[in-house]
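Contributing new complexes? Match this layout with phenylalanine.
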Amino acid sequence: MADIETLQSEILAEVEAAGDERALEDVRISALGKKGRVSELMKGLGKMDPEERKTMGPALNGLKNTIVDAIDAKKSALHEAALDARLASEKVDVTLPIAPEAKGSIHPVSQVFDEITAIFADMGFAVKEGPDIEDDFHNFTALNFPDGHPAREMHDTFFFHPDENGDRKLLRTHTSPVQIRTMMQEKPPLRIIVPGKTYRCDSDQTHTPMFHQLEGLVIDKETHMGHLKWCLEEFVKAFFEVDKLRSRFRPHFFPFTEPSAEMDIGYEKVGNEIRIGQGDNWMEILGCGMVHPNVLRNVGLDPDEYQGFAFGLGVDRLAMLKYGIPDLRDFFAADIRWLKHYGFAPLDMPNLASGLSR
Ligand code: PHE
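Output block (do not edit by hand):
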């Protein structure tokens, strides 16, 4: 019996000393496993005489139960300690910043929209927007594209299926429908720009089915072509951050302006670099003109009283020119490596005071 007590205190001391669940399992096997010390003693019971077995049986069972209980208690104590240690080591300090560096960046098209907006805001223009899904009236008819007029074919339009009345909605082919929407909602004087997405069924290195335009519209009683020219020259100088600019206005045709022009700006090529402003080469950068009297009539304005100018420019191409981006399609490839290279810092809002681009 004394042996049993010694063995018990020996094993209980081992249980107590076990530092982790693995060590505890080793103790269990050495005591209660098939060849464990307690198991070996229990095997001896069969060979004992009945008297001896009567006392040794309960004693050994008691020993076994005591050890099982001690191991269970130790096991849950160790488990809890391990959990506490893990919780402590994996603690998250929610007051720390989430990411050590900002991962997103501003797409060049967004940046250029912000730059253009800053320039025109300085000249007193307000920003207007309109829907991408348009109807024939706003995109064509009100802009003086008569039914069946060949100019409608110039825009490779994406049409929706006709509705029950046979009317087809379309994806706007330019931002000009917002001229119509604005003039129908507000009375002159008007001085607005319209940044937005536009759509034409076209795709190659310089055309994508979705692209970006910026429209401008000024309507009052005296604004003339001279104002248009000054305004656009000032814009181009501010945008390309140059002091001098060679420009020319070439006669052109748009149904909604009369007279109409395309504006060319001078540039020179130095090595691979294109320098805007001076030089012997001309590059077309926008379409413009005086708002056509029919357009004014279509929105309920008297052309004998009101007049003004409009212009429309391709924002993607301006971004490519300013930031040396060779392929338009990369704008829409959603490639994070491209964005890392060409993107802008999120909080670097362009403004005329600190410089448009940095
Ligand atoms: N809407 C014309 C286009 O997309 C551009 C433009 C706008 C021309 C305003 C003149 C005046 O081609």
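Reviewers usually confirm one structural detail per submission. For this one: The CA atoms of residues 133 and 214 lie 17 Å apart.
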